[in-house]
Amino acid sequence: MNRTNATPATGGLRRSLSSLARLVRVPNLFTAPPDVILGAVLVSGGRPAVPLSSLAGTALASVLLYAAGTTLNDYADADEDARLRPERPIPSGDVSRTRARNLGLALLGAGVVVAAAAGGPTAGIVAAVLGSFIALYDGALKGTPLGFAAMGGCRGANVALGMAVVAGSPSAPTTLTLPAWVFFVPVVVALYIAGVTYMAERETGAGDSRAVLVGMAGVGLAVGSVVAAGAAVGVGPSDTATVVVAGGLLCWFAAWTGRDLLTAYADPRPSTIGPAVGACVLGLVVLNGALSGLLTPVWGVVAAAFVVPAVGLSSAFDVS
């Protein structure tokens, strides 16, 4: 009898957890920590010069903020999803719109608090800026050209969050001088994601090869930036570990995203653009690993390793 009574409750719990996982885009959550790792590596010039607990706590904050963004995005898009994506958690009735809003706001606040607690005041301020970008994208800028910039700003700020952990750490040098190219990395990440977002916005409409071209341009910018950064760092053929890790990850990124983008460009429709968007979102993990690997191959591998759970979960949950 106990076994029979437990079955409906267990089934309900599984459905609830599955709905929440779809709401926060659980595969995508694993793309957030590599941004933080990249930022910390950039400021440190190699292995992150900050306690592992601070880095991990700030990475967790970035996950909470990402989950807030996807949840509030579904809250804002509930009416559109009811027409175009009725299987999503809110229009399907699995999660109420009010619950999604409350959860998103709670995650947003939690992300800022955790960032400040783990990474210090500087990280808290950057997390608050990141939270503002999220609120703007899911609010006033939704559906406007500036919305793409806001989404890109979210990713750029996420990299800056990792930079802030090191820069604001008591163990950081009192005079921190960084090469100019370091400050371009968050901008490149922001532009790349802005292009991917532009392409994603046209996923449910009529085929638009021009939108796919924007995504291709973002990938080209990212690849060129890694090559330029490698030249700035002075990576040469004798730097075997760096060439293998950074070069291998860069080739993986270009091949992975390029394959789906070429397919979408040749036949632009939701069933081809959607996978291209997903590949570009998950591919950011590999891009972060390539950039990190230019300075420290070991941490480049650590950053790229997050692609394993991201891809694994993408077979069960939507990315875009």
Give the key terms.
Tetracycline Repressor, domain 2, 78% helix, mainly alpha, 320 residues
Secondary-structure blueprint:
Elements: H1 2-23, H2 26-29, H3 32-44, H4 52-76, H5 78-84, H6 97-119, H7 121-137, H8 145-167, H9 180-201, H10 209-233, H11 240-266, H12 270-293, H13 297-305, H14 307-314
CATH-derived architecture: Orthogonal Bundle
| CATH hierarchy class name | Mainly Alpha
- The tally of structural domains comes to 1
The helical percent reads over 70%
State the oligomer: single chain
Would you kindly provide a written description of the structure presented here, covering whatever features stand out?
With 320 residues, the chain is mainly α. The protein has one domain: Orthogonal Bundle (Tetracycline Repressor, domain 2), CATH 1.10.357.140. The chain is built from 14 helices and no strands. Helix 10 packs antiparallel against helix 11. It is globular and about 60 Å long. It starts with a helix and ends in a 6-residue tail after the last helix.
How do you describe this structure in short?
Helix content is 78%, strand content 0%. It has one domain (24-173, 180-314): Tetracycline Repressor, domain 2 (Orthogonal Bundle).
